[in-house]
Write a structure and sequence with these properties.
The protein folds into two domains: about 80 residues; about 140 residues, Heat Shock Protein 90, CATH 3.30.565.10. The protein is built from six helices and eight strands, in the order ααβαββαββααβββ. The strands form two sheets. Strands 2-4-5-7-6 form a five-stranded mixed β-sheet, with helices on one face. A three-stranded antiparallel β-sheet has the order 1-3-8. Helix 1 packs antiparallel against helix 2, helix 3 packs parallel to helix 4 and helix 4 runs antiparallel to helix 6.
Length: about 220
Amino acid sequence: MKSNELAFFGKIAAGVTHELKNILAIINESNGLMDDLLELLKDTPFPHREKFQRSVKKIEEQIRRGVEITSRFNLFAHSIDYPSADVDLNSIVRQTVSLTQRFAALQNVEITESLSDRPVILFTSAFRVQMALTKAIEAFIKCMSGSGSILMMVRKDLGPPCLDFYCEGECCEKVVKEAVEQSDEWQEFRELAAILDMRHEWRADGGFLVFFPGVGVREWTA
């Protein structure tokens, strides 16, 4: 997809998520009004009061969930705004985990993150990095069966900033180099990693490391 097409997609997606958040805000206000009325009428008996109260709480929970999802997608849409920009690696990982959790859950795989205690700023394409990491995750999930988990850990103790992938659970034995590297998703990951100058290697225990380029990488000190 051309850069101008990506920019158009990002602009429309960002606009749609903004409108969805407005809709959720109106629903939240209406739900809050119902909750206030129930509180005002707490001494007035009427049938199905408990059902109304439970419904108000469920609506509140789903609104919160909807706002979180649309906010995440809005950030993703805006990641296309600039070909390269300063971006926090922690934010990229958090966003990637959020976007892939649904796909992983369908395969009984849980995805979590362990972030650095301070921002790690990269000058890169946030959109392409998220796409590359998603392809790597899809390759891991494809080689898993049963239940398991993938932990993405931001590390700064190995030289340049990197991500350390840990796979745990009963399916981990199937997440091996040979199986993963045969998938189409892995080939797409490798192509994107080459474009982004991201180095990657397997650990002796079967884990996986992704290193980000040293040029343009710095720790945020402000």
